[in-house]
Amino acid sequence: MLSFALMATAIGPGLLRAQAAPPSFTPEEVGINERLGTTIPLDLELKGEDGKPVNLRQLIDKPTILTLNYFRCAGICTPQLGGVVEVLNRTQAIPGKDFQVITVSFDERDDPEIAAQKRTNYLGEIKRPFPPSAWRFLTGPAATSKALADAVGFKFKRVDDDFVHAAAIIFISPKGVITRYMYGTSYLPADLQLAAQEAARGEAQPTINKFLKFCFSYDPVGRKYVLNVTAISAAIIIVAALIFVFALTRRGRQTKSEERP
């Protein structure tokens, strides 16, 4: 709202009965299982902002940044897409030439009208020359968006009227090959430029910031990321134990060496 994702571990945003216990999900249920090097189904047909059908093969002719969101999202989708806007404002890569962005809603209730509204809103926040065609907002049937989500390893769960899901941008080559995942809600311009270049060459690269999924978890109620204190504490204890064992072993060897005639 990470296998390899910065992920939600609590409930989805929305109204809950006071007596209802909030559901929780495992990484396998709402995380991302990277499918680097695989090709997405390019013949999937979605709807453009004008309501006209379009398939991914028509659109993906250059390095593409794919985001999966839902447009009524009151949680992580807004900061994530805001993070996309921020990096688009800062990158030196040329939109429409070096890359494009495609945002697909996995909520079948979203329609072209709300997609067009979201597109206008986010394009309005970009403070540099940016052709509208370089960022598309697409909608479609649940089966179609689910097929795309499955193809990129993106998992989500519905909770009442909302969804619990991870935040990531996924780089796709002009031939539809998945080349890189970036997690969270903020991205570095240099990382985007490098990932776009790799996508242009069709080079799949492993994720290097997977530790983020271990340190942070998303709090949908507070609409923020929080430190996973338990996970960090466990990691510190393990590291400290290893250092302690190493020190004892080394000390024992030194003592034996000193006792030799």
TrEMBL record:
InterPro entries: SCO1/SenC (IPR003782), Thioredoxin-like_sf (IPR036249). Signal peptide: none annotated. The chain crosses the membrane at residues 225-248. Cu cation binds at C73, C77. Disulfide bonds join C73-C77. Keywords: Copper, Disulfide bond, Membrane, Metal-binding, Transmembrane, Transmembrane helix. It comes from the Bacteria. The keyword Transmembrane applies. GO terms for molecular function: metal ion binding. PANTHER family: ELECTRON TRANSPORT PROTIN SCO1/SENC FAMILY MEMBER, THIOREDOXIN DOMAIN-CONTAINING PROTEIN. Belongs to the SCO1/2 family. This is SCO family protein.
